[in-house]
Amino acid sequence: MSGARKEIAVYGKGGIGKSTVCANLAAALAAAGQRVLQIGCDPKHDSTRLLMGGRILPTVLDYLRQVPEDRARLEDVLGTGTLGIGCIEAGGPKPGVGCAGRGIITAFEFLERGHVKERYDTVLYDVLGDVVCGGFAVPIRREYAKAIFLVTSGEFMAIYAANNILRGIRNFDGENGRRVAGIVFNARGLPGEEERVSRFARAAGIPICARIPKSEAFAAAEARGCTVMEMEEYPSVRRIFAELAERIADGLPLYAAGPMEDGELEACVLEGRLPDRTETEKSVKTAETARGPETAAGIREEDRPAARPPLFGCAFTGAATTAVHLTDARVIAHSPRACAFYTWQNISSPGRRNLFHRGILMPSALSPNFSCTEIGQTEAVFGGEEKLRGTVEEAVAERPGAVVVVTSCVSGIIGDSTGGIEELSTPETPVVVLKADGDISGDYMSGIELCLRGLAEKLVDRETAMRPMSVNLIGETGVANDLDVNFEIIRDLLGRMGIGVNCRFLGGATVDEVRGLLAAPLNVLASDGEDNRRLQTWLEQTFGCRFFDRPLPVGFRETKRFLEEIGDRFGCREKAGPVIRDEKKRYEAEIAELRPLLAGKKILMTTINAGMDWLMDAAEDAGMEFVWVGVLNYLGTELCVTERPDRCPIEELDGNTPLEKKIAERKADIVLSNYTSSVTAEGAVTDAIPMGRQVGFRSGIPVLRRWARLLEKRREGEWVRDRALFEKYYA
Amino acid sequence: MTGRCLKSITPDSLTGVIFALEGMRNTVVLLNGPMGCRFYHSTTSRFLLTRPLLKLPVGESGEKVPVDYNCLNSWFFRQERVPCTCLDGFDYVYGTKEKVGEALTFIRNSVDFDLLAVVNSPGASLIGDDLRETAGKILGPGRTVIVETAGFSETFAFGWSRAAMALLEQVGTELWRKRQPEKRTGKRVNLLGLSIWQRYFEGDLAELRRLFALCGVQVNAALCADCSADELARMPEADLNVVLDPEAGTAAARFLEDRCGTPYVVCGGLPIGFSATERMFEEICAALGVSCLALKEESERARARAWYRIDQVFATSGKPRGVTFCVEGSAVQEQAYTAFLTDYLGMEPAEPEQAELVFGDANLIAGLMLKNRRFCGIEISLPGMGYIDLVPKTHLGIRGALFLIEQVLNGLMSRLQDE
After folding, report:
1. Chain centroid to CA B126: how far?
2. Residue A523, Cα to own-chain centre: how many angstroms?
3. Fewest C-beta atoms under 10 Å: which of A44, A123, A521, B79?
4. What is the share, in percent, of chain B residues with pLDDT greater than 70?
5. From the candidates A118, A303, A399, A439, which should be mutated to test the interface with B, based on the most B CB atoms within 10 A?
6. CATH code for the part of the protein at B310-416
7. Which residues pair with A7 in a beta bridge?
8. Using one digit for the tens of pLDDT, what is the confidence trace for A606-641?
9. Searching chain B, which residue's CA lies closest to the CA of residue A729?
């Protein structure tokens, strides 16, 4: 090691004496004329105590917790110790809370912004070495330590920790990097320890740079609150550090990290079977060859976690977006503001669109009962439980119907305990914690499920009085534009048969309505997805709920069947007849109006794998024909586009399906897809399949009306051809 | 009851970082985080700027087609902006290096870009992976920006500042080292603190460029505001750095002063209204030693035009004098709009629940509509209600003052019909 500023990391097992070694080395370097900075990277923050005359410095993290970043000054955390040595303690949270690794990252970011290293010739990082997360590895990143000492005694666990540190260095440097300066052997006076350390050093291919004997010198220095280097006594100990400092100044040779496998380490250290260096290298290399080559990112194939499908959205957003439909509750995101912001946008976006485009005010979307604890840097390091508790206490004091807490990945990663939060419940206001932990518990749909189960478990009253002629709607999810429109349609149809809606779980319900969920004798799924079916099974098993066989109906045929069968369940089938007759008359009149414009037209459709009979039926009723359907089957499940697969050719789509060719071959008049720009269709009308489906008899009518207009008005407009100009001017 | 009176949740530093980097032209911003952190940024970024269509290779032929709803690419997944590494719970335990490496390799091989940025989500930034090392191996130096910590709940401006600094330190300095300065004609300025995440960003930038041109000054680069790598490279050639938003832009200005010796001015506020615009350009022109007479003359003509219309409304209604208003936005917005509305139009600040004119984002305006309040909402920040702007509009500068007065007068007229 030579060159300009020297940056040296001193790693070792907790309690092994690294701080003592580090402080004495700092003093020796300073005594030799170096400008030295020592940075303690251990939450117990006593690395620099001996250099500071026994004084404990305020830590960077404690300081940043109290002072806004724009007013934070390096000088407030930079102590000047003996011989002018700069002293800094990164600090960290109390054991068991927060994230100590994150603490190191935060402290280093602050020190980088202050350019503290520029003031010194040598920087020593004193790092706890038996913590393995990325935060504690920051000092061994290449932009920091250029040389690394391992402090160890002859105890096996200390050597084991040293070997682990070599593994960490190897991960950063690969085979060829050379940053290990060697071992500082801090003897405990145990029998055979020097031999054990020597065997380890030989096997790992690194030198023992210093042997520090067990000496009362350190206890004496400790008692005086200084380093041994400042004492008159113990010249032999002082000489060890002075020599080490001299070697550092001269430029230490550096070695590649050659960690051993666990078995080899035990054999070498405990049993004295010393593998020769070639064998060790060979074994490391053989193991590496067996483990396969590194990828571009420096990761080996077998280190890759098993391929997992990507998660669509996160459970946090799914849970929070669902919970806001508990209309008299307060929903609290225990998260950074970022997570709550996207969720707020997810909730409010359809509200804004409906207001702007249709003049419809959607209270739950436009003013959601949703707030955030705003986990900041302080909470990320020291834990956010206190802040969460305070926020929940404030919310409970306002006496909402309930307080629902949803946790984010940040609170999950730092391990915030939410166990005591539900104990803040009062008789008026139950507190429910949904441990979504961002996407740790799953995707958006998992979050919805987590929310519904959590709320049902905590709120539903098993002793509620029955409402015989009523149903619950189960699994209305998200904040879709058509949620309330669909509810009004189904409420009207059921109402005309004398059947009421007891609870919308959870399309919009009060806490009391959820408490009374079991009052309804029958439950109806809002849609027939896998997630809703799972929820159904859970409600059946947990509460003995009974479910209607069919979900809310989409399209004429489904709706007719739905009303007849639900009439059977409630003993009022006769009331379905007049409703169906009225609706049929209306439907047929509308179809008759559209038929002259649509009959004989051919439709080609690409769609996600979802039921499309509602649209296919209506189109066929208007005399149209589906000539080909391509299905984007993202999840690889059984195709469910239609109950009558014989009505037209249906194929699964992949990236190679030549859509333009299909369109030309089938002579399609209308090309449907989930997103219009995905397909270019010369001579055909392109249209998007509605994202949401309107329930009831008339589901397909608005779509047919749009097609009629598009087919009638075939003038496409010059703008379509200007794509070429876009390519020209925005390439 | 909840009272449904909770305030809107506004974007924080992560969004500030992402949209600052998305403001660099021909740049891919890879979010190292879960897909849930990506959707908002991907969806919104498409609407903030008019950009070329991104094309990715598909199928065995590798033919490049525009990214759209049918594009199932693991990182871009249906959306062309802000690809992500799709982290899950295991990645927080075992590290994200592999996923970042795979995404960077794909992007390197498939996308033509000038700059590539990697931004950690809040969760990813907790675990301390060395992204710089991973990106360095795959992309080499000089065109990669890494933001390992985008902040936790800090302000949008904080995030913008952090991204801008990362860009200057990690890429700018490399580009400056290699660049031969151009032959100079006339005075040039860099703009610092403008963000594409503004209600009228394209119009704002166009108006500022126009007004500088009136003063004979060229806008050399608008950092992170539709700025190319070439403009980033020539930033040291400016005569002055103009900080429009102190919280966002001051750190970058100081850095440029230290590294390039370029002086900077921190504007006393946004140029909202005639007086603020005139003051800002007087100060900048004085610092550059150029005249702003042409700008002042145009400002006078615009004031005259505005007077004619305001007077007509005043004659029939006594307004806008005394009309109550509220402004909710960033600190610099609140200060600038309030000064213009009170000093120029003689209006009176009020709480949102009492204000006749409400200046804010669409969430604030829609939330107040729920309370059956009679007021006129004027959007000054995002999210908007959904109006699609083709003609660039602005509230900044002289044209911005006229547009703002137009919105105020029409807002008042719509209220007059109720009275």
Report:
1. 27
2. 33
3. A44
4. 96
5. A439
6. 3.40.50.1980
7. A123
8. 888 888 999 999 999 999 999 999 998 877 788 889
9. B52
Q: Which of residues 452-471 of A touch B (CB under 8 A)?
A: none
Q: Quick one: A244 and A362 in the same domain?
A: no
pLDDT at position B70:
62
A146 is catalytic: no
Q: pLDDT grade, residue A576 (50/70/90)?
A: very high
pLDDT band at B114 (very low <50, low <70, confident <90, very high): very high
Q: Does residue A453 form part of some domain?
A: yes
Angstrom distances, CA of residue A543 to CA of A457, A466, A519, A539, A669 = 9, 14, 11, 5, 51
Nearest CB partner across the interface for A311, out of B50, B86, B130: B86
Per-residue pLDDT tens digits for A276-313: 555 444 444 434 444 444 444 444 444 444 467 788 89
- Check residues A229 and B93 and name the one with the higher pLDDT: A229
In three-state form (DSSP H/G/I as H, E/B as E, the rest C), the secondary structure along A303-325 is HCCCCCCCCCCCHHHHHHHHHCC
User: CATH 3.40.50.1980 in chain B, residues?
Assistant: 13-177, 185-293, 310-416
Closest CA to A93 of A341, A340, A379: A379
Provide the residue range defining the domain that includes A712.
595-719
When comparing pLDDT for A686 and A59, which is higher?
A59
Query: Is residue A575 annotated as a catalytic residue, yes or no?
Result: no
Q: Name the fold adopted by B185-293.
A: Rossmann fold (3.40.50)
For residue A370, give every residue at least 6 positions away whose Cβ sits within 8 Å of its Cβ, in sequence order, or none: A320, A324, A331, A332, A333, A340, A343, A344, A347, B6, B9
Residue B274 has pLDDT above 70, yes or no: yes
Contact status of A358 with chain B (Cβ, < 8 Å): no
Distance CA A479, CA A602 (A): 34
Chain A CB within 8 Å of residue B122 CB: yes
**Helix (H, G, I), strand (E, B), or coil: what is residue A719?**
helix
Do the domain assignments include residue A729?
A: no
Residues 6+ apart with CB under 8 A from A671: A603, A604, A605, A663, A679, A681, A684, A685, A686, A687
Given the DSSP bridges, would you call strands B115-120 and B144-147 parallel, antiparallel or unpaired?
Answer: parallel
| Highest CATH level, class, for B13-177 | alpha beta
Q: Does residue B230 have a pLDDT over 90?
A: yes
Question: Model-level pTM?
Answer: 0.85
Q: Is B261 on the interface with A (CB under 8 A)?
A: no
